Amino acid sequence: MAARTNPASTLAEKMVRVLQSLRSLDADSYPLSLRRLAELSDATAPARMILSAASPQQKAFRQYALAARKDLHAPVALKEDVQLLAASAQLLEFAFQVTRTEGTHAFTVPGLKKKLTSDLQKPFQEALTPRLDGDTLPASVGWILIKGKRNLFLLNDLHARRPAPARKAELPAVTPPPAPDFATSFDDAFRQLDREAGDHNFVSLADLRRRLPAGREQFDAELRRLRLGGLYTLSAAEGRHGLTPEERAAGIQEDGTLLLYVSRKAP
Questions:
Q1: In whole angstroms, how far apart are CA 66 and each of 62, 72, 91, 94, 155?
Q2: pTM for the complete prediction?
Q3: pLDDT averaged over consecutive 10-residue blocks of the chain (267 residues)?
Q4: Range of 118's domain?
Q5: Are residues 90 and 17 part of one domain?
Q6: Does residue 102 share a domain with residue 11?
Q7: Is residue 58 part of a domain?
Q8: Residue 161 domain-assigned?
Q9: 4, 106, 111, 263 — which has fewest CB within 10 A?
Q10: Which residues contact residue 229 at a Cβ distance below 8 angstroms, ignoring those fewer than 6 apart?
């Protein structure tokens, strides 16, 4: 009789494979949150299974470093990249999220690390202290001395009187260069990629994202406008096996479905 497969163990192994792919694929996508990692590994996995897959009971758990237990927003990376995770902006932001309260907005480094996992507390402090010494913290973070100890805080939490707006000197009018037309660029990229693939009117979002110089937020918003305008449609990746982590990351989740392929509507 075949041994029963544990879904959480299977998901844990998939997540390790996705981490291994991401670390060599896109530095901007790694480290990432546990929730995002699970979406790229199995978009249908429920929260309880994700947390079970990220528990010490799973053998695959030994291969990655997690910022906090039982938190889908916790950043995660391979254990061999624990120093990279410790020095990442994602981890510093997460530390503020889980430590900050309505009544307390500033923390020492030891106070800021308390809610991180024990494996990350020392590397986090070792990575953050030199940034304090060299004043190389992220632009969103500052520090102030309180009883001789440096306390970090988010600049958004700083309350100060707003300076009066300065009078602008009269400058000659300068006509700004025209903004890039996303719709035109998208049309051109779609036609070229579709032609290269054999004119099947079926182009992957992964290829389009690589071709167009736009951030994800802008890309998704502009594509939504094109869809609402009746120019393009998206179809699901369901039934297509062997998707790469890059393809999963490029797709758009809607109602639990990963949309990956773009088609142009007939005029």
A1: 10, 10, 10, 12, 27
A2: 0.59
A3: 72 90 73 91 91 88 84 92 91 92 92 91 92 88 91 87 71 57 89 88 90 86 87 77 78 83 82
A4: 7-156
A5: yes
A6: yes
A7: yes
A8: no
A9: 4
A10: none
